Amino acid sequence: MSENSATRVLEDGQNRAFEDGLIRASDLRPPLAAMTAARDGDFTEVPETGYAPVAELSTAFNQIIDRDIHFNTEVRRLRRELV
After folding, report:
1. Is residue 47 part of a domain?
2. Residue 76 is assigned to a structural domain of this protein
3. Closest CA to 38 of 7, 12, 60, 9
4. pTM (2 decimals)?
5. What is the per-residue pLDDT across 11-59, written as a single tens digit (0 to 9) for each?
6. Which helix (H) or strand (E) element contains residue 64?
């Protein structure tokens, strides 16, 4: 995993020190799994839990999913009206 200058990522097995701005790679696996599932058509929301950056990432992901579901619902509704 590449390192971002804003937030360093700890690989599993290193000490937990989020107070220093560190996030474990394992904390990022659930949001990554949800994004991969969404790419494959599964629009299940993720729990908005964990440390602030991970929870914020999950919240943003859920908002994207909500908008996508709303958009798809509107497209289907318009299709029914036009056909």
Report:
1. yes
2. yes
3. 60
4. 0.68
5. 544 445 456 677 888 888 888 999 999 999 999 999 888 888 889 999 9
6. helix 52-82
